[in-house]
Amino acid sequence: MKSKKTKIVIGGMWIIICASFGFFSPTIPFVKEFFEIKKVYVKGTDKFKKEDIKKIFEKENWFFIDKEKIKNKLKKFNFVKDVEVNRLFVGNIDLVILERIPFAVIHYKNKRYLIDEEGVRLSEKYYKITGELPHLYYNDKYISKDKLAKIKLLKEEFKGKMRFKKFYVYKSQIACRTEDDKDIIFSIEDIEKSISRAKAFMKRVSINQFKYLNFSFEHMVIARR
Length: 225
Prior knowledge:
It is a single chain. The chain has 225 residues and is α/β, with parallel strands linked by helices. The chain has 2 domains: 24-99, Ubiquitin-like (UB roll) (Roll); 104-224, Cell division protein FtsQ/DivIB (Rossmann fold, 3-Layer(aba) Sandwich), CATH 3.40.50.11690. It contains 6 helices and 11 strands. Strands 5-4-6-7-8-9-10-11 form an 8-stranded mixed sheet. Strands 1-3-2 form a 3-stranded mixed sheet, covered by helices on one side. The model is unreliable at 14-26 (pLDDT under 50).
């Protein structure tokens, strides 16, 4: 009986010792030195400064690294959409960054700034406004990811056929201004049907002869020369 109790006590003490070692080992000099992060490889972006990465990882331990904590720190940088943290061989970390991509220049509440396709405002510290991006004039109270997704759909569906330079978003319509100054209107609620009507119309008639086309109505197309 005593032998069994002794084994239990010894086993319990061993567990406590192992747990204590695991907890305090990162502070033990030779362990800390062996498992310190010596090299961080960054893929997917060139926007980080060496000082940024050094600050994030200087107090981290390769063996006990908290990946979620690191991800949260990295996502505080405006250009980081998502990140994957991988441990390579001892002391080396691999970061795979999914960078936010400029989608449009938005004009909203008397301000102008860059956004990505999710409506996230992009810092001018990392991005510059270029003439290649379309301008989006947003009149609704709030920026809707759903409406941004529909603008993206329009860009993709008419790529190579029409180049949009401006979008005007209203409650029920998206008005598109092309580079040759045509105004083309689509329904927001029935965007797929509007796109289908536009494609069917373009197969039968050249749109070059029109300055205004409205595909937002279900049973008609309004066209003006």
